Amino acid sequence: MKQRKLLSQQHPILYFLAVWTRRLKRNLEWIFDSKKYSKTKTDNKLDFRIKKHQSVLLKKLGDNNEQLQINKVTNLKIASQKIDGIIIKPGETFSFCKLVGLPTKKKGYLLGMELTFGEARAGIGGGICQISNLIHWLVIHSPLTVTERYHHSFDPFPDDGRVLPFGSGATVFYNYRDYQFTNNTTHTFQINLWFTDKCLEGELRIDTELDYAYHVTEKEHQFLKIDGQFYRKNEIWRDKILKFQSGKIINTELITKNFARVTYTPENYIENK
């Protein structure tokens, strides 16, 4: 079934006004809300690593997007400089959009791939969600509290070497679709980002070693066909484990349930009639 276009999609000027109205609202929130946002950066790494992860820079996502993938690497390197070394003190909130700012040509950002309005298309700064995806994966392996997160409402490409569970990332669009988490602990945390030839790498560090850790898993993954349209669903769960008691699980919680439209034909699916 073909989805009906929103009014803002039919009239570009309405889309422009809607976006900047939301951006203005967010800017006012940043000024007047009671949150204390993280802004301190340092090259000195905190003593203990909680979690490390890497994601491949160049992936096959559909056809004819090689240049957008190459441009994405440039975008990632510009955005990562705003985050690398950021310290999140007790009581502080990390805001991806507040730290990175608006991606513009003037800042050196290039056309990269964006997922919006149910399709993949080129946009200035496209691809920097790869950083927010990585950071979210680090954060859910910690006691930090995610306070704002969005994910894509559709799945546009078949898995190509996917390592993380579907729906375990965090999409951003400056600035009203932000990724935020708050440090409600007594510890200080730090995010570090760097690049190898093939990967974006990142780690979450802490000032005091914890006696517990987290293990994140996927459950109930399925492709479904409903009324001629494909969908993908799963659940993301997290175990809290005591490090020094043979991995004893002391808590299990559901992180999120995902249900998204799929714009390709999956190999295996269940048809609901």
TrEMBL record:
It comes from the Bacteria. This is Vancomycin resistance protein VanW. It comes from Flavobacterium arsenatis.
